[in-house]
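Researcher: Here's the sequence for the chain we discussed earlier.
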Amino acid sequence: MIQTWPFDQSYSTVAEPVISARQLNHYFGSGELRKQALFNINLDIYAGEIIIMTGPSGSGKTTLLTLMGGLRSAQEGSLKILGQELHDASKQQLTQLRRNIGYIFQAHNLLTFLTAKQNVRMSLELHEKMFDRDVDGMSVAMLEAVGLQQRVDYYADSLSGGQKQRVAIARALVSQPKIVLADEPTAALDKKSGRDAVEIMQKLAKEQSCTILLVTHDNRILDIADRIVYMEDGRLAANPEVVLQK
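Model: Thanks. This is the structure I predict for it:
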């Protein structure tokens, strides 16, 4: 059994959080159809932490993840990512922020007409600072780090589900982002492939000192977390317990 920390308790009394939410609310729709999805979210996440967010389907986990990833601006309350306030942030500000974040999704989102190396390289090509770097060499090195040295030039369609997820991890981490956000990264994988994927993510993130926020229903991987936060009905629980299924 893991005892998770209260969501408003600081993990560090010295460092500034890389993610900080205060009284964060979010709504969908308008007028009579307006529905509140997030209620008074308060959460601090620090550099180098691996945080797992769990809870029932429809509890608001993915909505919160998309806000933290700069995929939409915050509506009410405060949300600071890497010191940038996202309340009413402009599209330009959100675009700039996203360059510091790596994303891993359940569906991989690989381009099937590109090779593994080309999919990873695309992430580097979004960054001006990489224009004079050996992006091919960096892409191959990251694929080697996730155990795909024999699949560098394979097209995505010819890879297994676990291999595709490894490419997605390589793509998310190759530019050395400060934050990695993962939404159900093991949902489509078997037990071994899912475990391998998150352990690779954990190892590479620790080496790069980046923060991971991982949304999952998969109780088999909860033990990789530094902290677990539990969400239900758009709210973070103050002091939940999560039982590990060994």
